[in-house]
Structures are given as structure tokens and as C-alpha cells.
Amino acid sequence: MKPGARIAAVIELYDGWTHTRDDADRVVSGYFGSRRYIGGGDRREISERFYNLIRHQARLGWWLAEVGYEFQDGRARMIADLVLHDGLKTAEIADRFCGEQFCPETLHPNEKHLINKLSDKTLDHDAQPGAVKTELPKWLYAELMKLHHENLTAEMAAYNQPAKLDLRVNRLRGTVEDAIKSLKADGIKDIERTPFAPNGLRLPLGLNMLVTAAYKDGLIEIQDEASQICVKLVDAKPGMTVLDMCAGGGGKTLGLAADMRGKGRILACDTHGGRLDNARKRARRAGAGDCIQQRIIADERDSWLRNKSGFFDRVLLDVPCSGLGTLRRNPALRWRIGQRDLRTLMGQQSKILKAGAAKVTKGGRLIYATCSIMPEENERLIETFMRDRKDFRPVPISEIWPDAPKSVPVPGGKDKPWLRLSPNVHGTDGFFVAVFERTAKGKVK
């Protein structure tokens, strides 16, 4: 594709996304799914530019308003991004907006005037409000300021960078060294070990793992390091009985099976049958099918699951959440999640936490996790649980992971037993994990 044709595709994608406010990944998938003639290299550049427009959403909007430009559509934002982010001049932009087949129409005089006004400027400006600088809706900026204070700008700058590709090596199929050797044989370069997860590898973006022998043989799974750390903190041992109550596609379930060396029983539950179907396929590829049982449940009050009270050594609750910890991979989420959505999620999380606690045997552990950065979904909910459930004690992360690298701080504050991960501090997705041990049978509240 010509450079101008790729730019036209980005504009079309962006305008489609703003019109529907659908999930950005779904918009991209639908766009390329109906245009299979677009090659891999073109797809990567188009996708990257599209997601950059979303990552620069607030600042581009601020600049267009600042210079008095009347339009805020994909074309205007693309022109502004080419100037402010790429540093292109009028002639270079005109080469792309050339009016040829599949390319954008030629530049209008007012667009050339816009380019001149933005020339020699960058995306950032001292006069931008905090919410604009951090690329956040105003309500979300105010909430996160309470958590991060003066560190919020640095935190959000990290969330606004694309994430690298993290892999978990499946120890049921081989070692980390086996995986590295296999990936290198397939021409994969620049392979790094993850700094915290012992079985993790980190690769550059843009690689297709699905065609590698390591993936086909079940030796690797695509999984962010934060999720791998969460699985480690479950501390599942061979022979245990484990409940993964919100299993989804089964990524953490597979990690648990590997930690248990395939010995024991894992019950993976979810309300969506399609997710569990995918989890079954992944389990077979990973060689973990014998110890994993999948089951569809109606909700956290499911009658079959209710009969399992006090039954499990470990209960993992990777609860439905806002997903705001995945902004590096899903930058559009910040513009889709609202305060009403958050309140609804908090109600669901509280119910799941209560139901999950009832399934833990005495001496067993309850692990609450989210890929959210919101205190309402994490610390505040956990503090309520600690106040109401005296039959559970919080387990400090250091007790479960005594050999954790010293560079893994626990930013919950002094004497806070939970772990909060972030791309700025740890290079992972944003993630929250709290672990509790049941000290007595207690009475379900």
C-alpha cells in the first residue's frame, strides 16, 4: 500500500471507532477481516497509527481546540498527529494527502493553515490540564490523583506506551532454555527473560507466536508477566484441589496446572461457554487436560458450586473488572469505562468475593485479583472484606514469595499485604493481588 492509502485506512478506522465507540480491537479485526488483501506489514503500520490516535486522543483534541480548528474528526486528528508526533512538514503531509486512488483528498487551504499553526510544536504543552497531559477523562484523572498524587504523570506515561509481548514457558512441556532454543530455531530474536516471573520471556511487538513450533507444541503461552506473578502467588502445590472461579480463556488455569505439575484437581468455572471451549483446547495443547475440569456456571450463586463450600485448598478470583490496568494493550478502555460501569462492577466483585470465600477450606487460601488500577475495585473492596471476615487473615506477599527480587516493591504502603503492579514500576500490566488464609470455618456472611 502507498503511504497515503495507509493514512486513509487509519482515518476510516478512527472515524468508525468514534461513531460506534465499540471495542477498538473489535473494530480493527472487523476492518481487516473484510479486507484480507491488506498485507501484514501494512496491517501493522495501520494498527499502530490507529492506536496512536487513541493514545494521543486528549492532547490532539486540546491542540485542535487551542488553534481554533473547527473539526475533531479522524482526518483532522491524523493531520495533527503527523505534525505533533511525527514532526512532518506541509510538503511531506501533502504527499500522503494526494487525492490519488485509495489516498485521502488533497489538503484544503484551512488544513495547510492548521499545519502551519502546529509546526515546530509537540504533543505536550505546559498549558495542558492534568487530565489532558495524562490522557484521562476528568473523572478518572481525579480518582487516580488520590492514589498516585505527583507520580500520576509518570504512571500514565508508562500506560501510554505499547506493551511488549510476554510469554509463559509451560514447564509441563519443557524448560525455559528449551523454549528459547525453539524460538531461536524459528528465527525469533531479541528474547529476554522477564525480571520477576521465573518462567517468563519477553519479546518485541509484532511477532506472530501462533506459527512457531513452541506454541504449537504447547511449550509457550502468551501471558503478561503480571498474570504470571498472580499465578505464582496462588502458590498451588501438587495434589491440591483448586478453584479458578472466573477462569475465562484459561490462561491462569494453565499456569496453576504447571505449578502443580499436572497432579491434583483444578476446577475452572466461567459463565461463558465459548471461553471455556477455548480453555479446553489450550489445556490439551499444554498437556494439562487430565487435571483440569471446566464447568459453566450461571453466576457466583450457582447451585452446583454452592455445594462445594469449604472444599478447596486454593480459590482464585480473577474477577470481572474495568480492565484499566491493560491500557498499554487496550488504550481505548479509558474512554469507554464510566463511573456507572465502575459501580456495577464493584457490586459484582463484592458478590464474587463473598461466594469465593465460602469455598475455601480451613487452612486454605483465597486469592483476589484484578487487572484494574482503581482503588474502588481493589484496596477499598479488600478492606471491607477484612473488616467483615475475621475468619480470614491477610497473607503478606513476602510470606508467599520470600525470594522475590528486592525491586518488587509492594506499593500498597507500609504493612499493606497486597501487591499492586504497574508498567511504570515493574514493566507489567497494571495488576492487583491480595491473598487471604482461612483460619477457621467461620460463618458465611
Automatic annotation (TrEMBL):
<dbReference type="InterPro" id="IPR023267">
    <property type="entry name" value="RCMT"/>
</dbReference>
<dbReference type="InterPro" id="IPR018314">
    <property type="entry name" value="RsmB/NOL1/NOP2-like_CS"/>
</dbReference>
<dbReference type="GO" id="GO:0001510">
    <property type="term" value="P:RNA methylation"/>
</dbReference>
<feature type="domain" description="SAM-dependent MTase RsmB/NOP-type">
    <location>
        <begin position="155"/>
        <end position="439"/>
    </location>
</feature>
<feature type="binding site">
    <location>
        <position position="299"/>
    </location>
    <ligand>
        <name>S-adenosyl-L-methionine</name>
    </ligand>
</feature>
<keyword id="KW-0949">S-adenosyl-L-methionine</keyword>
<dbReference type="InterPro" id="IPR029063">
    <property type="entry name" value="SAM-dependent_MTases_sf"/>
</dbReference>
<dbReference type="InterPro" id="IPR001678">
    <property type="entry name" value="MeTrfase_RsmB-F_NOP2_dom"/>
</dbReference>
<protein>
    <submittedName>
        <fullName>rRNA cytosine-C5-methyltransferase</fullName>
    </submittedName>
</protein>
<feature type="binding site">
    <location>
        <position position="318"/>
    </location>
    <ligand>
        <name>S-adenosyl-L-methionine</name>
    </ligand>
</feature>
<dbReference type="GO" id="GO:0008173">
    <property type="term" value="F:RNA methyltransferase activity"/>
</dbReference>
<dbReference type="GO" id="GO:0003723">
    <property type="term" value="F:RNA binding"/>
</dbReference>
<dbReference type="InterPro" id="IPR054728">
    <property type="entry name" value="RsmB-like_ferredoxin"/>
</dbReference>
<comment type="similarity">
    <text>Belongs to the class I-like SAM-binding methyltransferase superfamily. RsmB/NOP family.</text>
</comment>
<feature type="active site" description="Nucleophile">
    <location>
        <position position="371"/>
    </location>
</feature>
<feature type="binding site">
    <location>
        <position position="270"/>
    </location>
    <ligand>
        <name>S-adenosyl-L-methionine</name>
    </ligand>
</feature>
<keyword id="KW-0694">RNA-binding</keyword>
<dbReference type="Pfam" id="PF22458">
    <property type="entry name" value="RsmF-B_ferredox"/>
</dbReference>
<keyword id="KW-0489">Methyltransferase</keyword>
<keyword id="KW-0808">Transferase</keyword>
<dbReference type="InterPro" id="IPR049560">
    <property type="entry name" value="MeTrfase_RsmB-F_NOP2_cat"/>
</dbReference>
<dbReference type="Pfam" id="PF01189">
    <property type="entry name" value="Methyltr_RsmB-F"/>
</dbReference>
